[in-house]
Amino acid sequence: MKINIYILLLLLCASTRAFAQRDTGTLKGRVLNLKNEAVADANVLLQNTGMGTKTDAAGNFSFTAIPAGRYGLVVSNVGYTTLKQTLNITPGENAFLDLKLSESKEELKEVTVISTRNRYQVQQSNSSTRMDIPLLTTPQSVQVVSSAVLRDRQAFTLNEIASTFTGLKANNGNGSFNMRGFTAYSPNDASFLLYNGIRGNLFLWSQQPLLYNVEAVELLRGPSGALFSEGAPGGVINFITKKPLAESRYSVDLSLGSWKFRRVAADLTGPLSKNKKLLYRAIIGYDQSESFRNDQHKENLFLAPSFTYLFSDNTNLNLELNYAHQQAVHQYDNGTFIRTRPDGTFDFNYYPNNLTIQSPTDYGKTNNTSATLTFNHRFNEKLKLTVVQRAVRNVLDYTDHIPVGRIRNDSISRGYQDWETDRFSLQTTAYASYGTKTGPLNHQLIVGSDYNRYGWTQNDYQYKPSSRISIFNPDYSHDVPAADVAAEESDDNKRITNLVGAYLQDQVSLGQRLKVLLSLRYDNYNGQETPLSARDNKQGDQLQASGLIPRVGLVYLPIENVSIYGTYLKSFNPQTSNNVLSGGPFPTRKATQYELGSKADFFKEQLSATVSLYQIDYANILTAAPTEENSHRQAAIDGTRSRGGEFSLVGTLQNFSIITGYAYNEHVLLSTSSYGKKGDRFANAPKHMANLWLKYNLTATAAKGLGVAAGVRYVSNQVGLLSNQNFLFPEYTVFDAALNYQRKRYNLQVNAYNLTNKHYFTGSRSSTVAGGLGEPINYRVGVSYQIR
């Protein structure tokens, strides 16, 4: 691919059209009859959006994250005449509507609903339950980072926004994250990254997921198998993507930063037909950067067109296409060197930051594509159907150098990896929701099924020994082994896995105070790995696993804006290795979580707080168990236990916006084996993490439009390798700051990261030789311009 051609096209597009950042607002109201009595269970619908809700026993309803624009509001209920009126969403304050239903239609005047694009707080999400219910009544710990936070932090990848979530940490510079003490990593937990609640990660484990087309990021803590099947025991991350809008908007964003960072993005949306039934959105992005590390260069091109066709107020079809091309010298950063002292302790400051294990001869080329087709239909006020088909393909070609053995006399042996792989995921999801009553009980039923066919059609991997280098004076001239050098390890295979699942969920409400969530899912896995040539000398893995996944949640609201919840969650993950030569097949990995917590909305629901306590038991982890007859034998052990608590606070109060939180976690082994000793701390799992981000928007005439922000994050020490409990990465505290100035259609954003230039390590991969290194002090300057 000729990247320069795309750059020219992008710049041409950016110079002629620009797109406005999507504003979102909150609409709340109350529905009464002409006798001023509350109308419960009335249907409230925003036309052409698919957003709908029901009034509670007091007649109250609410919507959050409404895109700025013009909408039709429809309120209906059995025995009443449907009420319709027009709403305009514009930047500003929130509004509350008093609406009345009667037996005769009453035309209401146009209402302007005031919103703000600077809201940090998101109060509703349907990802955890597939129901659009408030987070306050969701029996699970969920945190949402809004588009306003992404903008203020100038976060362009998931890794850059991870520290804003309470208890979430990026372990290194690729797709490895820690949640509640568990490492989520794509090869092992393929579905921990979701898009709009659907399986199918667009990015490989070697990449930092890009946020060009992302409106908000959600963290659902704990096992979430009841809806999403397999996933990391610590939680799943869900990307909510930007959708086409009914009004034309155009803007462009330009950013510059340290280490030759450059980024340009254009976002265009609006109607394609005069009747506004066919809508589009086109997102285009390009960035390139180097690093404080030697021989680091990376380019990303991102294209995301999407289309929505509105058949009627009750039916719509959405098609979203994504293409991401990455070209890099190093596909991912293997970390920097760490010196082992003669007494067995470690010196984390001995080697300079810029030195890399990898070679300038390495390269990485990745092409990721996806297509998602979503059909929504509302049969009536009680019954809705959603059908989603998502297809993803990831093609990777890369070479890489990894450390082998220990550092001796400031030199290190290395291995050479050459890998080509072609991976895919085909996901079909269909679910229907139905609201009904049985006596005093209200039911919101969800019934659904999934079919996921995933794996790879090519997995061509070779490992060969490479040259030993001096760390301080490396000679890379002999890095690439000759073609006739025999590979010490070789794979050449394909793998196809079929997952069939079905689930049933019922949220039972007894009045407005007590809600019970009951879910049950059944999953069946059937997979086969097949050698493609004699180079693959392993017997192919076979995967056959099935089981039930229950979930029970209880929510009680002692007062209107405070809830107490308890939840019981389970999930099971098939083993990534079931090779019979290693002792397989093995029992599935199982996670069980018990959680108790409380949520509250304060100051007229402008601030939201969550407190939670949890325990996660994780069983059937594979570990080496060699015998004289089989040196490759593995065995499943009892597993680990993760216990902890979390507190988070988010919202906007007058001119202040805040995100803060604290997480405590203790993740240890439950038994002694070759994996480690009972009580050993798990790798990359700090006991304490805290985060704070505070922004103040000035309103004085002379400084109107100016925002000042500052943040801090703290991570306590963490074991870098389970097998060596003395390998402890030191604790660290990092400070950030930001300024922004908004004037009419322009917004200038300046961010500075790691103000004290703290030298710190984020985590380890698989040895004591290297660790993921945090970035030193750096900056970014961004300018955005909106046309309309």
Q: Indicate the proportion of strand residues.
A: over 45%
Poorly predicted regions are 1-22, 104-116
**Highest CATH level, the class of the largest domain:** Mainly Beta
Radius of gyration: 27 Å
CATH topology of the largest domain: Maltoporin, Chain A
Q: How many separate domains make up the residues?
A: 3
What is the approximate shape?
Answer: globular
Count of β-strands: 50
Described by strand count, sense and barrel closure, the largest sheet is:
22 strands, antiparallel, barrel
Mean pLDDT: 86
Helical content stands at under 10%
CATH-scheme architecture of the largest domain: Beta Barrel
How would you describe this protein?
Strand 32 (489-510) and strand 33 (514-531) form a beta hairpin. By secondary structure, this protein is mainly beta. The protein is built from 4 helices and 50 strands. Residues 1-22 and 104-116 have low confidence and may be disordered. The chain folds into 3 domains: 24-101, Immunoglobulin-like (Sandwich); 135-241, Beta Complex (Ferric Hydroxamate Uptake Protein, Chain A, domain 1), CATH 2.170.130.10; 249-786, Maltoporin, Chain A (Beta Barrel), CATH 2.40.170.20. It has a 22-stranded antiparallel β-barrel. 4% of the residues lie in helices and 58% in strands. It is globular, with a radius of gyration of 27 Å.
